[in-house]
Amino acid sequence: MNPFFSRLAYAHALLCSMAEKLCSPLLLFVRLYWGWQFAQTGWGKLHNQAKVIDFFTSLNIPFPALNAHFVSGLEFFGGILLILGLFSRPAALMLTGSMFVAFWTAEREAFLAIFSDSEKFYKADAYTFLAAAILILAFGPGKFSLDALIASKFKQYMHIKPANARDWGTDAVTG
Question: In the prediction, which pLDDT does 48 show?
Answer without folding.
Answer: 96
